[in-house]
Every structure is written in structure tokens, then in C-alpha cells.
Write a structure and sequence with these properties.
- The chain has helices spanning 29-41, 46-79, 87-95.
- By secondary structure, it is an all-alpha fold.
- Helix 1 packs across helix 2 (46-79).
- The longest helix has 34 residues, at 46-79.
- The radius of gyration is 26 Å and the shape is elongated.
């Protein structure tokens, strides 16, 4: 029997975890003001806003990394001959010392 997401009852679990902390020093006044204004506009604390900005930046860079990998794979496929050798043929070639 499969369990669907809406079939699962939420549970409250208290876990004693410590999240990593980052200290940013020498933040330019203009950046600080801008972040505070954004936090107020989004009804978040300054800390929540900074986390939001960091998460968005990481997500964007992760997406560009994925796109770069996809592009590199596609380029490699274009350089690689379209023929392929199946596994039994490869094993035979290896036995015969041809590969």
C-alpha cells in the first residue's frame, strides 16, 4: 500500500541540533540599510532576510552549475562518434587484447 503525502499525519519532533553560524564583519552601511529595508518589506528579521538572500544565491549558482555540466555533456556527446560497442562485444575485444 502506498502512502500519499496527504495521508501522513504531521508529528512534532524536538531535535537538539545546532545550526552552523556565519559571522559577517565590516558590512558596508549601504548594504546593511538595504538588507534591513528588504527584511521589513518581506516581514522577516534581518537574519531571516540574510539567509533568504544566501539561499537564493546558492540556488542560482547551483542551477548555473547544472546548466554548465549539461552543456559540457552535450558538447562531449557531439564530439563522440555516434556508434557504440555493446558489452558482449567489448568483453570479446578485451579478451582478444583489442581494447
Amino acid at each position: 500500500m502506498s502512502v500519499h503525502r496527504h495521508d501522513v499525519r504531521p508529528a512534532i519532533v524536538f531535535v537538539d541540533t545546532v545550526m552552523p553560524t556565519i559571522t559577517v564583519r565590516n558590512v558596508p552601511e549601504a548594504v546593511h540599510r538595504h538588507l534591513k529595508r528588504r527584511a521589513e518589506e518581506h516581514r522577516r528579521s534581518l537574519n531571516q532576510e540574510v539567509l533568504w538572500v544566501l539561499e537564493e544565491a546558492v540556488a542560482e549558482s547551483s542551477e548555473s552549475d547544472r546548466q554548465a555540466v549539461h552543456r559540457a555533456c552535450r558538447e562531449e556527446q557531439e564530439r563522440t562518434p555516434s556508434w557504440s560497442i555493446d558489452t558482449p562485444e567489448m568483453k570479446r575485444m578485451m579478451r582478444e587484447g583489442l581494447a
